[in-house]
Amino acid sequence: MGLIRPRLPPAPPAAPPDSPARDPGLPPGATMERAAAAASACTLCAPHLPLGPRPIHQLHRDTRILITSQAPGTKAHLSGIPFEDASGERLRDWLGLDKDRFYDPTQVAILPMGMCYPGRLPGGGDCPPRPECAPLWHPRVLPLFSGLRLRLLVGAHAIRFVLGSRLPLGERVARFAESLPGHFPLPHPSWRTLVWAKKHPWFDAEVIPALRREVARALED
Ligand code: SF4
Q1: Which residue's alpha carbon is nearest to atom 4 within ligand 1?
Q2: Domains of the chain, first to last
Q3: Which SUPFAM superfamilies match (predicted)?
Q4: pTM (2 decimals)?
Q5: Which residue from 18, 23, 44 has its CB within 8 A of the most atoms of ligand 1, so it is best to mutate?
Q6: 3 state DSSP class of 125
């Protein structure tokens, strides 16, 4: 029989867009469980969120790998589950992880740059993550991990916020080794990246094998 791994329940339902904007705060000495509950109750950006606040994350104090991605899309907003779409399949393939391991919060945590779906841009595509989110929640949550080994920075927003890098995304990814150990910069695993990767064969030939090695190492006992 296969190993049964813990999986967090989906995020609570969305709050209405006209909810009062409120940061629930976090008292000093709070546990990760408490921080996750507080993050789920955040409505700070309510006036800017067309579908209402529904913070989506996957957090556990014992996790080994933290994924800092952009912001949930509409599918994740509706289901409450991050990366349960084609981008998630692609990301799991890059990492060499099946769904069981990916959704095991003791192995993989997910704390995006913006935890709520930010809406659509007038010209198409999703809005950038809300700028309030990462500066508020990342400093509260990050110290509560007990033994984080690897942080994956998925997309330009996460790379800029964490590494402070202004290099073009492709160049930053090509120079991934400069961020090891500890951080691994990646493009967003959208269909656009498939097109981009065809023009930059070093991504599949060099970056993905190195990424799988780092992930396997971070999950070793
Ligand atoms: S995006 Fe972040 S800061 Fe804004 S309401 Fe959602 S959880 Fe709160």
Answers
A1: 45
A2: 32-219 (3.40.470.10)
A3: Uracil-DNA glycosylase-like
A4: 0.94
A5: 44
A6: coil
